[in-house]
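1st attempt posting a full record on here, be nice pls
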Amino acid sequence: MLRNSLILGLVAVFALALFTIFSEYKTPETLNRTAQYYNENEVSQVGAANVVTAVVVTYRGLDTLGEVTVLFLTASVIGFILRRKKKGEPVVKADKGSEILSTASRILFPGSIILGVYVFVNGHLTPGGGFQGGAVIGTAILLIALANPEFAVSRKVLHWLESLSGVTYVIIGLLGIFLAAGFLDNRILPLGDFGHLLSAGAIPIIYSMIGIKVGAELSGIITDINQTKTNLS
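the predicted structure (as tokens):
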């Protein structure tokens, strides 16, 4: 009884706090000083048509590097836990998915991969980017895994993709210190023509590396979970 009363009291306090915040919230009608600076100077400094991309990849590049690192650590921990297997443990083949799901996966998989690549390659021009494109690629792998429980992407291939993309990302960031104005400064390459694919300096390359890395990490997680589920079936 006491426990339920405490839980109810905490929920009530939390609800009151949220009500106070939202009741007094007013939508800002003007940009704050930082946002205004980005909005006014992004085209000349970064050259990306997508202002969000300019902020995420350059002005806030260290934070993005931290996010990629967190995802890498998460994938590593999940892989370490799921790959633990006792000696002599039998492997039981799982039943295949339905024919409808199997056919749909074969049809949608190529297009999903192409869409994921398109999203992170064009991240500096349209809404999207490395994380979103990598998530689309991971979803394509998940679809195949659902249709075929025995499906598995080579861990060696995923490891090399993840490692090479991550190292390249950091190297590009370090080049910004020596060839431009700071870490992950995209002006190590010419800004190009605004609004074109080959523009915004090194941003398309940076986002491509992020997309490949995120896609490889999510695919690795899905593969580990799928194989563990198959072994336990």
